[in-house]
Specification:
Blueprint: H1 2-29, H2 34-37, H3 51-60, H4 78-109, H5 116-139, H6 147-155, H7 161-185, H8 189-205
Helix pairs in contact: 1-4, 1-5, 4-5, 4-6, 5-8
Length: 211
């Protein structure tokens, strides 16, 4: 158990840090300096970590980092630009997952996995693959305050703005309820949805190494 946690730590820190950095960087490129002024345009994981969200990743395999502050008043097109900022985090996680998968397939294909060091590296990369995929898919769920809800709001026509506002009101309660249901019953509704996507991309990104 301790060994597993030690191997999980680098994968979790990288996944969360790069996810939040991507949000802040895209916002900065679109004209919003808020994240930069808050010290969030950094690859130092400490400013990005939310203690409860990080702990949840270890306990129930769902978690979150401290949200990057964004001020849409700086954007030329707030609706479009908020969509881009929101999508940046999950896209970054998919990129990291792809890199992890390719490295795993290269190590396995070269027969290097039999080396003790390569076995450890492969395990870390597999955790990175899993965590980044889970974070990407989880965050793209259209439930506030997840990134997917902001992407959905950016895609919805203005005449449905009231629907987005109502979703923002009830979304956090729905999300907490789904997480608690999984903890209490041991049967996660969230993972029932996320799991098939994660399995699909594991096979895709490792070129069938785990099929």
């Amino acid at each position: 158990m301790v060994e597993q946690i030690i191997l999980l730590v680098p994968a979790i820190l990288i996944a969360l840090t790069f996810h939040e950095y991507a949000h802040g960087y895209v916002a900065y490129r679109l004209g919003d300096p808020t994240a930069k002024m808050a010290g969030r345009l950094t690859f130092n994981p400490i400013p990005h970590l939310d203690p409860i969200g990080t702990l949840m990743l270890f306990l129930v395999h769902f978690g979150w980092a401290k949200p990057v502050p964004v001020d849409p008043r700086y954007f030329k097109d707030p609706k479009r630009d908020m969509l881009l900022v929101a999508a940046a985090g999950p896209v970054m996680n998919m990129i990291l997952a792809f890199i992890s998968g390719v490295l795993i397939s290269l190590i396995a294909g070269g027969g290097m996995v039999k080396s003790p060091m390569m076995t450890i590296l492969t395990q870390i990369l597999f955790y990175s693959l899993m965590i980044n995929l889970a974070l990407a898919v989880f965050n793209m769920l259209p439930i506030p305050p997840l990134d997917g809800s902001k992407v959905l709001r950016g895609l919805l026509p203005y005449r449905y703005e009231h629907f987005a506002l109502e979703l923002e009101r009830i979304g956090p309660m729905v999300l907490i309820g789904l997480i608690l249901f999984g903890i209490v019953t041991g049967k996660s509704i969230l993972w029932a949805f996320i799991g098939p996507f994660v399995d699909f991309f594991i096979k895709l990104f490792t070129f069938g190494s785990f099929s």
